[in-house]
Specification:
The complex is a heterotrimer of chains A (196), B (65) and C (369). Chain A has a single domain (4-192), classed as Alpha-Beta Plaits (2-Layer Sandwich), CATH 3.30.70. Helices cover 26% and strands 14% of the residues of chain A. Chain A has helices at 18-27, 62-66, 92-96, 132-138, 150-153, 165-179, 188-192, and strands at 4-8, 36-41, 49-54, 72-74, 80-82, 160-164. Chain A has a two-stranded antiparallel ribbon. A two-stranded antiparallel ribbon of chain A has the order 2-3. Chain A has a two-stranded antiparallel sheet with strand order 4-5. Chain B is an all-alpha fold and 65 residues long. Chain B is built from two helices and no strands. In chain B, 8% of the residues are buried. The two termini of chain C are 21 Å apart. The longest helix of chain C is centred in the middle third of the chain and has 37 residues, at 177-213. Chain C has helices spanning 6-40, 56-65, 87-96, 104-127, 146-175, 177-213, 222-230, 247-272, 280-311, 316-320, 326-332, 334-342, and strands at 71-72, 139-142, 323-325, 348-349. Chain C folds into two domains: 3-37 and 87-349, Up-down Bundle (Fumarate Reductase Cytochrome B subunit); 48-84, no CATH class. A three-stranded antiparallel β-sheet of chain C has the order 3-2-4. With 369 residues, chain C is mostly helical. Classes of the chains: A alpha+beta (196), B mainly alpha (65), C mainly alpha (369). Chains in contact: A-B, A-C, B-C. The interface between A and C is large, with 59 and 64 residues. The structure holds protoporphyrin IX containing FE and iron/sulfur cluster (2 copies). The site of one iron/sulfur cluster (SF4) has 15 residues of chain A, from helix 3.
């Protein structure tokens, strides 16, 4: 069975922010909510690196462990999704997530946040696929159409890889073999407890 | 004077508690959005059906040409 | 009420109204200061870099694993510039555990509350109710003012509401989802969280007022030590001298209300106002202290509630009517009673049961319960 993962090839990422823009546009994510973001380490210094991050769809996901209403579930191919009808906006998944993936529309006094929103691996949510309800709550469902997440598919340098962990790890390994240097499967240790 | 202040205080407090449920964030029931629990067998089947298509897609989308 | 004097009732009513209004107004104003603080604050913090003598690439990945911040152009209240946040994993293990590792917070918190209840049940079974010896005298002296009583019951009721709603969030997945179902519990949890988050600040303000008002009568003295040595005669073995509050009550004040209370209130405010912009690690730490101290406090509160109602005959009426029987006062707070008489306070006949004729003083004897 396939196991969906993200992998960012840091040697290729050129900090163009196209993945962020594509995601926002595809799913019509509101202002202030970023399902995907680009973080630059050592910005402006020699060896600066840009890394694109979103929900990594962890095995034994911390967000699911702490959710007081137990609204997370994992699809058979490892995508971590949540039910916005159950979410109470407590913020706990945001505290627990290693990657800062959970987002909320509000940050107001008395802990009012609104429903949590995060990357769905373009797999929609617990609604009829391609329904109006799914579109407004979770965004489009590309996986049901046999397509991979838009951020990775449109990445100009093919830095961002998404898909079955074995398939994308193979592609990445071939690249590293050809260009030399050490592989860096960023975040896999924290998300899946393993390295490539 | 038949109502004790403490009962009034209790009533006022109960009212305040009920009132706080009127917050915009509170969704107790939304008509037409009920869905059953996610079905593990359906999920399994769907994942199996799409896994080949998605693997092909990854091969063609990310491999260097 | 035998006071046909309507102005007294009116004044009480007004005092109660004003203290309530003050509590609610302060609860609204204090939190808003967060916006001022957030406005004054500058942008995201940039961590400085020390000089490196090792491989910069390896250093960068080590930084990433150790929650060192980078920069990001995306902006939003929950959009962070940290690649991996390690505090989350630790917090997750403490609050929820993982496969095969039970959550210490739920485990110890749950046990301490259950043990407290069990200990009280055993105590009650063995020693029973602490009765007024020789019965009531039918004369009463004033003990708590209207203001003190309103404050006490406001704190008590909100404490119970906050305790129930808070524990629902923590234990709901184990206890309530099987009963209410996922959807039913989510609906309840939404209301519970909202109530907890809005009632909490009002509770905090009232608690601080309570700490201030009762500081004077809670100064520890030598007699309190003597009281504690014999546990006030609750285990048998004679009586111990006591002022207005005895050694046990002072312990409850200092450990429960001041110590645990302030811990719960301060961390509660940190959790309740994300608009201050505190980071995830701070919130997670605050959460563990908040929930841990709250459950410890609830365990102590069971003892307090037992002592004030079932455990000691004649104590509850001090906090409801404001007056206590002179026999109770002599038995439990002899030094305070002597002081009252010295100040020229005259014991008055107890208020009669509503509608009944006033009993003459001293005629009511030995009726317990
Ligand atoms: C100033 C007073 C208080 C404030 C501002 C406050 C606020 C909060 C907040 C914001 C949370 C995080 C949960 C959420 O966002 O829904 C929380 C959790 C909690 N509170 Fe309070 N609270 C207060 C008093 C109390 C009291 C008096 C108790 C118990 C007697 C209590 C028990 C708890 C518990 C057990 C949790 C943990 C819930 C969980 O882990 O899911 N709190 N509180
Ligand atoms: S990355 Fe965060 S939100 Fe995504 S599955 Fe892991 S813990 Fe949950
Ligand atoms: S914010 Fe929503 S999804 Fe996240 S832990 Fe709280 S209830 Fe669960």
């Amino acid at each position: 069975m396939a196991r969906m993962k993200f992998l960012c090839d840091v040697e290729r990422c050129i900090e163009c922010h196209a993945c962020v823009t594509a995601c926002k546009n595809e799913h019509e994510v509101p202002w202030g909510v970023n399902r995907r973001r680009v973080i630059v380490m050592d910005d402006g210094q020699p060896g600066e690196k840009a890394i694109s991050v979103a929900c990594m769809h962890c095995s034994d996901a911390p967000c699911a462990a702490v959710c007081p209403v137990d609204c997370f579930y994992q699809t058979a191919d490892g995508i971590v999704l949540h039910d916005k009808d159950l979410c109470i906006g407590c913020g706990y998944c945001f505290y627990a997530c290693p990657f800062g993936a959970p987002q909320y529309p509000q940050q107001t006094a008395f802990g009012v946040r609104g429903k949590m929103d995060k990357c769905t691996f373009c797999a929609g949510g617990p609604e009829e696929p391609h329904s109006e309800a799914e579109l407004t709550k979770y965004g489009t469902n590309r996986i049901a159409e046999g397509k991979l997440p838009l951020c990775a598919e449109m990445c100009a340098t093919k830095a961002l890889l998404a898909g079955d962990g074995d398939v994308i790890a193979n592609i990445y390994r071939k690249r590293v073999m050809r260009r030399g240097g050490r592989p860096q499967s960023w975040g896999w240790q924290a998300a899946y407890g393993q390295n490539v | 004077m038949t109502v004790k202040p403490i009962s009034r205080l209790g009533a006022a407090f109960a009212f305040a508690v009920l009132l706080s449920a009127c917050d915009m964030g509170v969704v107790v029931y939304e008509p037409g959005v009920y869905k059953g629990d996610p079905d593990p067998i359906a999920s399994q089947q769907a994942a199996a059906e799409r896994s080949d298509a998605l693997a092909d897609r990854a091969g063609s989308a990310f491999a260097d040409r | 009420m035998t006071f046909s004097d309507k102005t007294v009732a009116k004044r009480r009513w007004r005092a109660m109204l004003y203290s309530l209004l003050a509590i609610i107004a302060l609860a609204m104003i204090l939190p808003s200061l967060g916006y001022v603080a957030a406005w004054a604050q500058s942008g995201p913090m940039v961590i400085g870099y020390e000089s490196r003598d090792s491989n910069p690439r390896a250093d960068m990945w080590r930084d990433a694993r150790q929650s060192v911040a980078g920069t990001t152009d995306q902006s939003g209240p929950y959009t962070t510039n940290v690649l991996i946040n390690n505090s989350g994993e630790i917090w997750r293990e403490i609050r929820s555990g993982r496969e095969g590792v039970p959550s210490p917070l739920k485990r110890f918190g749950g046990w301490i509350m259950l043990l407290s209840l069990a200990a009280i049940a055993v105590f009650f079974a063995v020693f029973g109710r602490n009765k007024i010896e020789g019965g009531r005298e039918g004369l009463t002296v004033p003990r708590w003012t209207m203001y003190e009583r309103v404050l006490h019951w406001f704190v008590a009721i909100t404490f119970i509401v906050l305790g129930i709603t808070g524990l629902s969030l923590l234990f709901g997945r184990t206890v309530l989802i099987p009963v209410l179902g996922a959807r039913g519990f989510a609906a309840y949890a939404q209301v519970a969280m909202t109530v907890h988050n809005f009632v909490g600040p009002a509770f905090g303000v009232a608690l601080v007022l309570m700490i201030i008002s009762w500081l004077g009568v809670n100064i520890p003295k030598r007699v309190d030590l003597e009281w504690l040595k014999t546990f006030g005669g609750y285990f048998g073995g004679g009586h111990a001298p006591s002022e207005k509050l005895n050694g046990g009550e002072k312990l409850w004040y200092w450990i429960g209300v001041v110590g645990l209370g302030l811990a719960v209130v301060i961390t509660g405010f940190i959790l309740d106002f994300p608009n201050f912009g505190q980071d995830r690690a701070t919130m997670a730490l605050a959460h563990v202290i908040h929930a841990g101290a709250a459950m410890f406090w609830i365990a102590l509160f069971f003892g307090h509630a037992y002592m004030g109602t079932l455990g000691t005959e004649g104590a509850l009426e001090g906090m409801t009517t404001g007056r206590v029987d002179t026999a109770w006062a002599k038995q439990h707070h002899n030094l305070w009673y002597a002081q009252l008489l010295e100040q020229g306070v005259k014991p008055m006949p107890a208020e009669p049961p509503r509608g009944g004729p006033p009993p003459s003083a001293k005629s009511v004897t030995g009726s317990s319960t």
